[in-house]
Amino acid sequence: MSGLEEWMNSAPVTAPVPPILYPLLAYISLSAGLLATGMFVVQEKNTLLAKQVQTSLIAALFLGFGTIFTSISVGVYV
Question: Which parts pass through the membrane (predicted)?
Fold first, then answer.
């Protein structure tokens, strides 16, 4: 079987998450990201640097995934 035949007979790629859940995942991710951002803002100045970096990374990840799910749920496929 040639590569072209394999490509023509292959199954389409599907999303691991059902598209109906995109708005819910966007809401949950953005809410968790804003909560983590708020926790980062109210941390005291003498908090360990590792704790500040951990909180900011968690906020960035949740806000990033929330933005992606929001874009996908409104039809902008990135």
Answer: 20-42, 54-77
